[in-house]
Amino acid sequence: MDHRLILELLRTDDSTRVNGLYAQADQVRRDTVGNEVFLRGLLEISNHCRRNCAYCGMYAGRKLQRYRMSENEILDGARRAVAFGHGTIVLQAGEDGVLDGKYVAALVTKIRNETDLAVTLSLGEREPEEYELWREAGADRYLLRFETSNPELYRRIHPPGAGLDMESRLEHLRILRRLGYEVGSGVMVGIPGSTWDDLANDIALFADLDLDMVGIGPYLPHPDTPLVSEAARFPMANRQEQVPNDEDTTCRVVALTRIALPRSNIPATTALSLINRVAGRMHGLARGANIIMPNITPIEYKALYEIYPAKADSIETAEIIHRVIAEQLAALGRSLGVGRGDSRNWTIRRNTCKTN
Length: 356
Ligand code: SAH
Fold this sequence. Notes:
Blueprint: H1 3-11, H2 15-32, E1 36-46, H3 71-83, E2 88-93, H4 101-114, E3 118-122, H5 128-136, E4 141-143, H6 151-157, H7 166-178, E5 182-189, H8 196-208, E6 213-218, H9 226-231, H10 247-260, H11 270-275, H12 280-286, E7 291-292, H13 299-302, H14 318-332, E8 335-336, H15 344-352
Parallel strand pairs: 1-2, 1-7, 1-8, 2-3, 3-4, 4-5, 5-6
Helix pairs in contact: 1-8, 1-10, 2-10, 4-5, 8-10
The structure holds S-adenosyl-L-homocysteine.
């Protein structure tokens, strides 16, 4: 798909064309990754962070009650993921230096020894040596979104500092790939100052990076962040160019990404399920997605993991979420994936390129 066609499909008002896009993405999904939906238990293990990302409610400079789960609490989380039938546990946190190389490596080893879970890490930009230690300890996947493909916008939302530019973020993704991780990245849709052209470039970059997993969610403004207070100061030259952070645009990006990367794993993200509480997740699944990441963080910590405002789902227990997902999958006629659910993109790369 060329840039012009992607732009057209992102922007068209013609509902027949949009429905055609959604139907095509759903067909490609069925043909390539099938009807199974894999669940990844998401455990938010720490909200300490050394970065000051302008969009995130956990940025270092914000006054916020901080927590870090103990090793036992994390292992309990892994056991809960097993009990729910999840094939994967995702350990996510702010960029928390206390979760250092050795500590996380030992944790990964324990989870791998005690369970059959695949382990996904999402701990921010870390030292290459740490990525390597964790991979050797048995970590399977790493999630690190590039957030936007526009280097200038990237700089604007990530305050200056050594190595914190877009190029270095991409370098981290390349390092992870070389280490043999299944590599996931993604963007927020509708960041203030992002244009349709940027969004089309985001999709092209997913394909260029040949991502194994792609997370796409709407930008949800957090009132206590610099980006919200400064958004008014970045008026678009042409307001027509500002991408909305809405459900339809997010779903179009999901659909186009499925077509661009047919064998990748694409979640119906929590952020998408929050802008349309009734049907957001179902729409994502019907328009290209094949993964759900149910939040299994203990309720007392969940509300403090405030990447976006007091997350609307923060009072929902893992049990409730699990029941809702089961009902939604039944309504869509989709089956629950059994096992790890590795990305087919990654499996094929592994088999054709043994040195990887
Ligand atoms: N510290 C880790 C994990 C961050 S949270 C890291 O940097 O990778 C995971 C994702 O949440 C981020 O990559 C970002 O895309 C998303 N996120 C953060 N703030 C958000 C907001 N206000 N609205 C929507 N998504 C947000």
